[in-house]
Amino acid sequence: MNNKEKIFHVSIDLFSKYGYDGVSIRQIAGEVGIKESSIYNHYSNKQEILTTILNYYVEEMVSDEIPLDQASLNMDRGFDFFYQAGCDAFLSKLEEEEMMKITRLLFIESYHNDEVRDFLKKSIIEAPIEGWIVLFDMMKAKNLIKSDCDTRQLSESFFYYGMFLLYEHFFLNYPEDDGKFLEDFMRKTQSHARMIFDSVKIGGIE
Amino acid sequence: MNNKEKIFHVSIDLFSKYGYDGVSIRQIAGEVGIKESSIYNHYSNKQEILTTILNYYVEEMVSDEIPLDQASLNMDRGFDFFYQAGCDAFLSKLEEEEMMKITRLLFIESYHNDEVRDFLKKSIIEAPIEGWIVLFDMMKAKNLIKSDCDTRQLSESFFYYGMFLLYEHFFLNYPEDDGKFLEDFMRKTQSHARMIFDSVKIGGIE
DNA sequence: GTCTATACCCAGATAGAC
DNA sequence: GTCTATCTGGGTATAGAC
User: Fold this and answer.
1) CA distance B202 to chain A (A)
2) pTM
3) How many domains does chain B have?
4) What is the CATH classification number for the domain harbouring A40?
C-alpha cells in the first residue's frame, strides 16, 4: 500500500472516531509515518481527503437495486422472505468494516457539512422510503394489505425504526461491536416489520 | 439581563447552531458585546459554560411524570386519549425555543461528549422505554392487548419512530421551523401509534 | 467587572533543500 | 516524494491597569 492509500485509510479510521474537526493533518501524518507536509503531495488540502472518502462511499453504496418484478415474486413467498431479500442488499455493504466507519462518519458530520447532510437525506432516507411506498402499493394492488392504509405512513413507520437503530449504534453505542449490532439489527427490524405488517395485512395471509 | 445571563443565552444559541467546538470564546464575547477576557469573570472556562447549560436542561426536563394510576384511568378512555396525555408532558417542554436549541445541542454533541451521551441514553431513551413497557404490561393485564405480544419490542417499535423524527429534525432539517415540526410530530406519531396499537389490540376495543 | 496586552499552543498550509 | 523550517491565523486563557 502506497502512502496515498495509507493516508486514505488512516483518515477514514480517525475521522470516524473523532470527527473531521477532531483530527489534525499532523495526526494523520503521524499515524501514516510521514511528516505533515508530505500529505500535501497527495491531497491539496484536508477537505479533499474527506471529499475523496465520501465519493468512495457513494460509489460503493450505489446498490444494484432489486428489480421490481423480482420484488413482486418475493412478495408472493411471504412477508418474511420478502423483507429479508430487501434488507440483504443494504446490509451486505455495511458488513465491511470500512463501510461501517464511513457510515458513522456520515452520521456525525451530517450536522455541519451540507454535502454530507444532503447525501444522507436523499440517498439513505428519501430514496428507500419512496422505494418502499412503491412496494407497499404493489402489495395493495395484490390485495395483500388493506386497501385503506396510508402507504407513506406505513413506509415511514416501517423504515424509521431501523434508521433509529442505526443512529443509536453510531452515536450512542459506538464503538460497540459492529458484528453484534448487525445481528441484533436483523432480528429487531424483523420483529418490528412483522408487527407493522400484522396491522395492515388482510386476514389469513402470510 | 446581566452579562453572565447574556453569556449563558448567547452560548446556547451559538452552540446549538455550530456545535461546541465550532464556537469560540471570542465569538461568544463578541455576540454579548464584551471582550473575551471578561468571560472568565463569570465562568472559569469554556467547558463550564457547557456544563451549566446541560445542568439547566436536566433540571427543566425532569418531568413530573404521569402517575401510574392516572395512566391507568387514561387508558380506559381509549388509546388516542391515552397516547396524547403521555406525549403532552414531554412536548410541552420542547415548545420553548431555548429547550429546542439545547435538545439540538445534546444530539449533535452526543458523539464526542461522554456526559451528554450518557444523559441521552438514560434519560431520553432508556427511561421512557421502561415506562412504556410498564404501561403496555398494564394494558396486557387489562386484556386490552394480546397476551402473547412482546411488550419491550412493542415499546421500541412504538417509541423509536418518534425518536427518529427528532433525529431527522435536529440533524437533517435544522433549522427548519420548530413549530411546524412539533405539529407534524404530533400528527405522525399519532398515526404511527395507531398502527402499532392496531397490530396488538384485542378485537373490537378502541 | 471590564479593559488592553500578551503568552502560549496548535491548527492548516507553503517554500525550498535533498 | 519526503524532509526541515517557517508562516499565518485562530484558539484558550492569564496578568494587571482602571
Assistant:
1) 12
2) 0.94
3) 2
4) 1.10.10.60
